């Protein structure tokens, strides 16, 4: 995995801020829009939904690698590797699908909200 660009807002987070953001996203499982508000309020950073989504995906990959290392250590010497890895794959796939569905629903809600605001700004149509 590539390193974050040095000019990325995410690379400017302190270790404590990264841990806090990771806790919000993975342990508290807050929605992206709530995370955006907290990042702005607590870290003083204005970031986009897409930027947060990409950073989340990056964190998810890092966390998954950490978990795989732990699982490998736990299953060291286990004879039925295929079964163990198949189960691990099923779990990770389910976690990814769940988060993607939630993100798509949030994105759709934001788009519908924006469309509703645009409709309210239009003047009467003359005929």
Overall description:
By secondary structure, this protein is mainly alpha-helical. The chain has a domain at 9-77. Helix content is 72%, strand content 0%. It has four helices and no strands. Helix 1 packs antiparallel against helix 2. The mean pLDDT is 79.
Report a brief summary of the structure.
It contains four helices and no strands. By secondary structure, the protein is mainly alpha-helical.
- Structural class designation: mainly alpha
Radius of gyration: 20 Å
Average pLDDT works out at: 79
Question: Percentage of helical residues?
Answer: over 70%
Specify the biggest β-sheet.
none
N-to-C order of helices and strands:
HHHH
Keywords:
mainly alpha; globular; 4 helices; 127 residues
Walk me through the topology.
Blueprint: H1 15-27, H2 32-43, H3 49-74, H4 81-121
